[in-house]
């Protein structure tokens, strides 16, 4: 999700480990003709500062927000998923992923079913993605579901200006929408993580932690490959914690502590709005 993350070094598994992980010799050394190889697209490693920001976000969200507010946001996500693909989770993969997150957050089954039925009967509302720039030049994507886009636009503009930000076209180009499959990372070496990524068909794998500092692995893939990568990992005997779509930043904005505090206050204020579904950022805190 947009409002999740981790305190320890978030780092992408390095391509230099490929030979060690697979045990294969380069073609020139083995005397064999080169075989077709699927390239594993890996992003650059992120410094520990980004994890400090992620840790703030991860703790601040669940611990400061009331349980009902978390469920309200999940309800909005259910409404969007139903609007896009129908009310049957077996036929609507996005809805299935949201329902899974509801269960992880301990949302009662009766509440989930009620949210789906309510989404079917809800009055028409439009989904929008507002682009913004926050303190320190960080970029934000603000996902909303509203029945009055003009009013929401004005409210977000006012809120951004009040908290040191502004609406800014072009932020969307700094994010890619990707499939993300999260699995427990305990007792998994870097080499094994890379092997799993190759075997499952993922483009990237990142080591991260949850709010309890337990290791996690995030397998990044194309949106259309999300179900395939998840299924492949499960067939390899890997327990999947979650799987859904996220906006992953292509580059990060480095901010100092004062800017970090201001950005945190801005994002918290945005999340307080009932029509805001999620806020995505590209913040990397200075170490």
Fold and architecture overview:
The chain is built from 10 helices and 11 strands. The chain is an alpha+beta fold. A hairpin with a 5-residue loop joins strand 6 (204-209) and strand 7 (215-221). Helix 4 (67-85) packs across helix 6. The chain starts with 10 loop residues before the first strand and ends with a strand.
Could you give the topology of this structure?
Blueprint: E1 11-12, H1 18-22, H2 27-30, H3 48-64, H4 67-85, H5 93-104, H6 109-121, E2 126-133, E3 139-146, H7 149-162, E4 166-167, E5 175-184, H8 190-200, E6 204-209, E7 215-221, H9 226-235, E8 242-249, E9 253-255, H10 257-271, E10 276-281, E11 283-285
Parallel strand pairs: 9-11
Antiparallel strand pairs: 1-6, 2-3, 2-4, 3-10, 5-7, 5-8, 6-7
């Amino acid at each position: 999700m947009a409002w999740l993350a981790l305190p320890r070094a978030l780092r992408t598994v390095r391509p230099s480990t490929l030979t060690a992980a697979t045990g294969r010799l380069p073609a020139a050394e083995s005397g064999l003709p080169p075989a077709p190889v699927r390239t594993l697209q890996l992003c650059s490693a992120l410094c520990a500062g980004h994890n400090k920001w992620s840790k703030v976000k991860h703790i601040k969200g669940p611990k400061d927000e009331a349980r009902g507010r978390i469920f309200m946001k999940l309800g909005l996500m259910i409404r969007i998923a139903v609007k896009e693909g129908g009310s049957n989770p077996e036929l609507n993969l996005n809805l299935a992923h949201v329902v899974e997150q509801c269960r992880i957050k301990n949302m009662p089954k009766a509440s989930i079913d009620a949210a789906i039925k309510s989404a079917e009967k809800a009055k028409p509302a439009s989904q929008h993605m507002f682009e913004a720039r926050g303190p320190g030049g960080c970029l934000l994507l603000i996902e909303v579901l509203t029945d009055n886009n003009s009013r929401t636009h004005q409210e977000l503009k006012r809120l951004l200006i009040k908290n040191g930000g502004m609406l800014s076209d072009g932020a969307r180009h700094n994010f890619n929408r990707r499939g993300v499959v999260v699995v427990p990372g305990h007792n998994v070496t870097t080499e094994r993580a890379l092997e799993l990524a190759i075997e499952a068909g993922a483009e990237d794998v990142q080591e991260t932690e949850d709010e309890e500092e337990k290791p996690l692995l995030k397998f990044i893939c194309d949106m259309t490959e999300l179900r395939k990568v998840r299924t492949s990992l499960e067939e390899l005997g890997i327990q999947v914690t979650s799987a859904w779509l996220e906006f992953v930043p292509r580059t990060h904005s480095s901010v100092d502590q004062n800017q970090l505090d201001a950005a945190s206050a801005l994002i918290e204020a945005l999340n307080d709005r009932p029509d805001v579904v999620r806020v995505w950022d590209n913040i990397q805190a200075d170490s």
